[in-house]
Amino acid sequence: MIVNRQLTEAERDKAAAIYCRYCGSNAATGVLAGLTMQVLVAVSLGMSTAWVSVIGTLNYLSYILLPLGFYFSGKLGVGRNMRLFASVIAVMCFAVALSPLLPKHGVVVFFIAVVIIHCCGSFRDSMVFPLQKNITTDGTILSLLFRAQLFAAVVSLTLSPLLAWGLSRWDNSIALPLLFCAGGGFHLISGQLISRIPEPSILKELAARPVLPQVRKAWGEPLMRKQLLTGTVLNLSLMTMVSVSVVAAKKGCGMDNAQTMALSTIQIVSTIAASYIFKFFTERFGPRKMMIAAYPLLWVLSLYWCLVPSDGCGIGAVVLPFVLGGLLTVILPTALNNYFAITIPNSIQVGGTFLVFTINGGLTSLLGILVNALIFNMTKHCSASDAMLPFRIFYLITGLLFIPGILSVTRLPAKNKLVSKKANRPE
Fold first, then answer.
1. How far apart, in whole angstroms, are the C-alpha atoms of residue 40 and residue 51?
2. Which of 25, 140, 279, 359 has the greatest count of CB atoms below 10 A from its CB?
């Protein structure tokens, strides 16, 4: 619902409630047809470790195509654009569900469908940062992010144990396709929800403006460039180290589908805890200090996977990486998004969003794919008797690579410096 003015307080409240419900429905799709489920289907189809690891970077890679999302948002409005691409994602979920039934072309159908799912996710979310900023005030955006994340985490936590239980009892060759169909259904629901959100017409106008001048203006902001460097480091670490945890548990430690879903449930519990931790400490210390405090958890994650035992590796031995994964996937990107929202003026929000998605997402994912492929190619001749050895080598190399990355976070201006700069900066 587009209105030709700024939203009233009642409309902001309504928009915030719809956005939270949308995030909850999206969380259901993440459980039923998200990364973990995609990995399970990929492994069942016999895809190699290198190719399976690529799946975790596709979401970021698709950000290169972000201008299409701006184009459709400018034509349709943000809410209707999000509904359009949620519907396309639903159709592709149904295609993934069919892929195990196609013995000759199943892998090809699966991979094409997953690529389209991630691309359409980028088109759908192209204006999400400006949307969040325009349905809140500066004093309420952190509260909205917290509520949305918490609601999404509760939905995920409700569904994940049910899936883990079901996968331990059902024939997985039937269960996985049915779960992807259910995920497609929730994508349709989330599209209908977000299409009803009140949005000021300025969002459609911003999306319709030529992107290149806005990108140039955003790039000219020194703080924007510093945030891009930080985002590149954080996203590269998450798409390599955190996303590969699922593959390491499944192929390295020999977890079955039910155990893998149980580990994902543990990660969801961790995200709920991370939401509370993030809100509590960010209100007191700010997003920059949260990023600095959370970054060393990447080193702990790397060290743990290097030391996890090869023989007799039960589910209890791999709980910690998923706890850390839940904390990292909430705190690091949310802190950076919050830093972006409070430091980047409205005049460069769209250009800044474009840079964040394309550089921190698309171009960084290409680097992530290259890093993953190179390392796993190095390990393909490892002894077959030690399934964890390729993953130990992977985490040793990536852990060392990201040791100096914390400097990109510490170089961001502190809160007191931002206040003085913002006071002298025109919108």
1. 13
2. 25
Instruction: Note the Cα 220 to chain centre separation in Å.
Output: 27
pLDDT of residue 214: 80
**CA angle, 295 then 296 then 301, to 5°:** 105
Asked if residue 36 lies in contact with residue 160, where contact means CB atoms within 8 angstroms, the answer is no
**DSSP letter for each residue of 259-297:** HHHHHHHHHHHHHHHHHHHHHHHHHHH-HHHHHHHHTHH
335-374: b or e for each residue (b if 16 or more CB lie within 10 Å)? Answer: bbbbbbbbbbeebbbbbbbbbbbbbbbbbbbebbbebbee
Identify the band that residue 152 occupies on the pLDDT scale cut at 50, 70 and 90. confident
pLDDT at 111 (0 to 100): 93
Chain centroid to Cα 100, Å, comes to 26
More reliable by pLDDT, 292 or 363: 292
pLDDT at 97 over 90: yes
DSSP letter for each residue of 181-225: HHHHHHHHHHHHHHTT--EEHHHHHHHHS-HHHHHHHHHT-HHHH
Q: Which residues partner with 200 through β-bridges?
A: 3
Q: How far apart are CA 328 and CA 55, in angstroms?
A: 19
Q: How, if at all, do strands 199-200 and 2-3 pair?
A: parallel
Query: In angstroms, rounded to a whole number, what is the distance separating the alpha carbons of residues 88 and 117?
Result: 8
> In sequence order, what are the beta bridge partners of 3?
200
Q: With 60 as the cut, is the pLDDT of residue 64 above it?
A: yes
Distances (CA, A) of 296 to 301, 302, 398, 408: 9, 10, 13, 13
Tokens of residue 256, six digits: 């079955």
Give the rounded distance of the alpha carbon of 241 from its chain centre. Answer: 14
For residues 362 and 73, the model is more confident at 73
Tokens of 203: 């969002």
d(CA 204, CA 360): 24
User: Do residues 392 and 376 lie in contact, with contact meaning Cβ atoms separated by under 8 Å?
Assistant: no
Q: How confident is the model at residue 427 (pLDDT cuts 50, 70, 90)?
A: very low
Report the range out of 185-194, 333-342, 418-427 with the highest average pLDDT: 185-194
